[in-house]
Amino acid sequence: MREGDALRGLLAAALLLSLAASAARKPVIRELFVPAVADMREPVTLWCRYDLAGARLYSVKWYKDDQEFYRYMPDEQPPAQTFPVPYVSLDESLCDKERVTLAQLTFNSSGAYRCEVSVEAPSFDTAHQSANMSVMALPREAPYIEGVASAYSLGEWVIANCTSNKTSPQALLSWYINGAKAEQWLLDQMPSAEEEAVGDSVSVSSMGVDAWLQTRAPRTHTVDERGLHTSSLGLRFVAERRFFQGSPARVELRCEAAVGERSWERVVSARLAHANNQQLRSASHRLNSAHLLTSSCSVLSALLACSLLRLLVS
């Protein structure tokens, strides 16, 4: 009995050691590189680095959305095989047992990419890991800014336009003045009927519709036949002393274009022009006129809202 018990104990220990050794030899994926965002205009290489723990490699397989598109088996000739999968195009010269390179990306190339590594018999143990990739059209360069003069006198209009070309999704544009995000009322300004109705007493209003249209800060958006977006956002404000900082006094304008989690920016600046007493008086008059216009528009908007409410109630 004792000898039988001892034998069974030895067999159990041997089995446990065998299982432990087998578990230790299972493949492990050490690093899977699949970028969260890829640019449709550029090829992208996906990496799968692994540790076989002393075992022999049987195969490496790549999948997009559970459809196999590449297989590497070192004992086969040739070792690499490709399989047709919609919206997956490979540069086979840049594919091997650790990497695949995707070319000719489209928006439909977005999806879940999985690497699967298997070792040789008898275990054929397998490790796999996956990650999602979104294909976008990223900006080729920083947004460009138009319309900014080298210098401004107090009371002059500062008018700028920022454009980001050929992106998908549409770039989200933002303006910053001296590092602070521009207030919404400085963006996309258009003359309204109420503003024109303020009357001849307001110098800005007396500019007329055509002149107003020249000083608007437009927000435009177009889409081309490939689904790529071009976006513009204008900025317009009156040059006041508070905007010009430092010595010599300058204002810094920055436009930021964000696509996905990445952003691009461009910065320009303008100095404050020296002014004589007559120019200062004129600037003060223009500033007062602009402030009067803003106040008048607020009052007229409130009156219109009240009139509309009375009509609805009646």
Automatic annotation (TrEMBL):
SUPFAM superfamilies from the UniProt entry: Immunoglobulin
Q: Which residues form the Ig-like domain?
A: 27-134
Q: Which UniProt keywords apply?
A: Signal
Q: Where is the secretion signal located?
A: 1-25
The UniProt entry, under Gene3D superfamilies, shows: Immunoglobulins
Designated name of the protein: Ig-like domain-containing protein
> What species does this protein belong to?
Gryllus longicercus
